[in-house]
Amino acid sequence: MGARKRERADLIKEMNKTNAFARLNDSPIAPRKMRLVADLVRGVEVNKALNILQHNAKNASTSLAKLLRSAIANWEQKNEGKSIEDEKLVVKSIEVGGGSMLKRIQAAPQGRAHRIRKRSNHVTIVVDGSK
What we know:
This protein has four helices and three strands, in the order αβαααββ. By secondary structure, it is α+β, with helices and mostly antiparallel strands. The protein is flat, with a radius of gyration of 19 Å.
């Protein structure tokens, strides 16, 4: 590994010391529906984001709230000496990607069939704890 590459890797490691992430794979909600809820909490302070998700009527908000609590717990585990009250935790990024698809067939008139695609998604949430 070259010197510049090593310096860049050390810089990235230093920046990621304040970050914590959590990942949810194969959630049985369509990615389009999950992105609607994820856009509400992107860039928001963590306690406010949990409040938004708790009072949202969409089904995706329950799984996102659980994932956000997991990311907060990961941050607490990573930074043992610090508390959430002292730090200002922010939802740095949420990425929602498409997962695998279950392909089903629904009967249609005149002996035909329509394909039904039941979509799933992968969600990654990053929490940043900088003052």
